[in-house]
Amino acid sequence: MSQRREGTKPELVFENLWKKNDPAWHARVQQLWRKNFPAMPEQILSERIHQVVFAVTNETGEVVAVSTAYRTYIEQLKNFLYGFRCFVDPAYRVPGLTTKILVRTRDWLEEIHTTDGAENERCIGVITMVENERLMKHRTEAVWRGSGMVYIGNTPQGKHLRVYYFKKALI
Fold it and tell me: Average pLDDT, stretch 7-28?
């Protein structure tokens, strides 16, 4: 990993990998996951690699963050949404980066949602489960200003659920 001076902003590049079957990129993303989640089963690695929306790289080309999305039916909402996940390497966690990744991912999925999948399975928005204890404690706004994600309740385990509906989405 490249070193950077404390307080400097890393030069990060976003690479859109949505539905691109590129073994070289897959290996780079899996390297990030293996480094940070050594116990992640190979089956999950194999599934998630095909869900990558953006890979974020540093100055040397190392993948330091990734967003994934997958189509999921939300019974409570009676619609399909994209389930969103994001991971940023701890060495690259700077204020605002997660929101930037979420917004870029959200905007890309909104751009393609009318052409992605069968008409009766099109996603109407993005849903995410907030697992970060600090975010759940300190980011308690009903609507997150930076991303437009709306709090809709908790999982049985107490994790926050947030949704963003695409413009022109119909229920």
Answer: 88
Give the C-alpha separation, 19 to 16, whole Å.
Answer: 9
Question: How many Å apart are CA 164 and CA 56, to the nearest integer?
Answer: 22
Q: Give the residue-averaged pLDDT of 94-113.
A: 94
Look at residue 170 and tell me if it is in a domain.
Answer: no
Assess if residue 1 is contained within a domain. no
**pLDDT-derived band of residue 170, with 50, 70 and 90 as boundaries?**
confident
**Residues constituting the chain:** 171
SS3 assignment, position 141: coil
Q: Each residue of 123-138: pLDDT tens digit?
A: 999 999 988 778 878 7
Write the CA distances from 157 to 129, 130, 160, integer angstroms: 11, 11, 9
> How many domains does one find in the chain?
1
Within a domain: residue 8? no
Range of 78's domain? 13-165
Residue 44 lies in a domain: yes
Helix (H, G, I), strand (E, B) or coil at 168: coil
pLDDT(39) > 70: yes
User: Which CATH number covers residue 61?
Assistant: 3.40.630.30
